[in-house]
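Design a sequence for this backbone.
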């Protein structure tokens, strides 16, 4: 069984002056990584890769994940160099979440492509090939791709560690690609909680068909909300929109997290705080994470 990892989703909004304090709060209160979104067409969003380098320079152990890189606006060969550079500068603390794109009118407005669903799957498939080839030391890359044709390109730089490629995916073709080739799944907030088990099964089936162990594909559930002093009971399993905020006390949050790990087979939890403050991040880290880890450990010992 994979160990549990905990992350926090930090907004790249330019007016979010607390982002450094939030990252430091995450690092000092039990979080493993911070996730940063990539929507270049949002005027008030900072560039996530510049922000990650800024935060990495001010932290020592916190890892970083793009959630997710906007592939239509970040060509895979150049994204490979960006990712490797961030990984080197952070001493191996960067992993790459990739998405096939949405908000197509805005992407087109910035000069990006307007891919069909089939073209999107092909682009992501090719991107995985190109990214890994460009991280392979002492290699000259030639690739006959439709989206990313490369001819005699010198690979490099080589990352500090084997960067994991996570995909934000929900459709059947993308889940199949994910299970066969990617390192992790970022379950989208836009899908219902009820869709997660079938998606898990699809990833497992694709992994087995590709000769992989499904456990080699990490799985992250993203949960929106905040830790409160609520006393109303929280029913499990959760249903309805994944992006609906949860307001629960620390014990309830611990049970929610344990449910997703033990019953729904997620091994990574990404908190999306609806009140993004150091106090809220610290409260989740000190009151929820240790309790959730204990519940999962107890369940695994009993099993």
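Sequence:
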């Amino acid at each position: 069984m994979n160990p549990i990892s905990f992350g926090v989703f930090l907004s790249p909004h330019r007016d979010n002056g607390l982002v450094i304090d939030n990252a430091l709060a995450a690092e000092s209160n039990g979080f493993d990584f911070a996730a940063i979104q990539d929507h270049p067409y949002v005027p008030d969003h900072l560039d996530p890769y510049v922000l990650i380098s800024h935060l990495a320079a001010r932290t020592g152990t916190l890892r970083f994940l793009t959630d997710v890189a906007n592939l239509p606006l970040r060509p895979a060969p150049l994204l490979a160099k960006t990712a490797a550079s961030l990984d080197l500068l952070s001493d191996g603390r960067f992993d790459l979440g990739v998405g096939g794109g949405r908000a197509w009118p805005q992407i087109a407005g910035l000069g990006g492509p307007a891919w069909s669903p089939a073209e999107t799957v092909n682009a992501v498939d090719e991107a995985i090939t190109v990214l890994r080839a460009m991280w392979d030391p002492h290699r000259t890359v030639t690739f006959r791709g439709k989206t990313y044709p490369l001819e005699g390109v010198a690979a490099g730089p080589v990352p500090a560690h084997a960067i994991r490629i996570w995909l934000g995916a929900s459709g059947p073709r993308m889940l199949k690609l994910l299970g066969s080739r990617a390192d992790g799944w970022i379950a989208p907030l836009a899908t219902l909680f009820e869709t997660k088990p079938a998606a898990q099964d699809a990833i497992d089936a694709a992994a087995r068909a590709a000769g992989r162990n499904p456990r080699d594909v990490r799985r992250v559930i993203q949960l929106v909300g905040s830790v409160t002093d609520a006393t109303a009971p929280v029913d499990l399993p959760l249903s309805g929109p994944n992006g609906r905020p949860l307001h629960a006390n620390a014990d309830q949050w611990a049970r929610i997290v344990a449910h997703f790990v033990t019953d729904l087979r997620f091994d990574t939890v990404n908190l999306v705080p609806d009140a993004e403050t150091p106090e809220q991040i610290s409260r989740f880290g000190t009151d929820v994470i240790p309790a959730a880890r204990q519940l999962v450990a107890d369940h695994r010992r009993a099993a």
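The longest helix spans residues 278-302.
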